[in-house]
Amino acid sequence: MTATHTHHPTHTARQEWATGLTAFAAVMLFLAGLLSLFRGIMAIAEDDVFVTTPNYVFQFDLTGWGWIHLALGVLAMVVSAGLLKTAMWARVTGVAIAGLVIIANFLSLPYYPVWSVVMITISGFIIWALCVVGRGGNRYDVSGERQSPHG
User: Fold this and answer.
1) Is the pTM of this model over 0.85?
2) Start and end of every DUF7144 domain (predicted)?
């Protein structure tokens, strides 16, 4: 008589996916926050790096933009620490912060276009990484159907 061994490699694969994507999002959110922090400091100091665009619909004072980016940067860096602990509140807040970073960078495109496009792209990857893994580490496809961890 042979003994049957039961182990669950799919559960481990799901956990690895969840851990990997959450760690990716945490690092990317931290970097996006750090870049936003630097951008905020530059704007508050009214550095000559920024281009002034006349007659822009969403025109704000450069210092105002600086404070917005500084606050988003600090929040993103704090939330990234929560993501490393795989807290659900951090995933939800991370998606919200990344969404706000996208909006802020879209509205400030004329002031620093290349940086804004890079930040929008990074934030898009953060949102993807935080949303692709469901509760308990299950991976979902675009239609919302649960996939096996192998495909």
Assistant:
1) no
2) 22-135
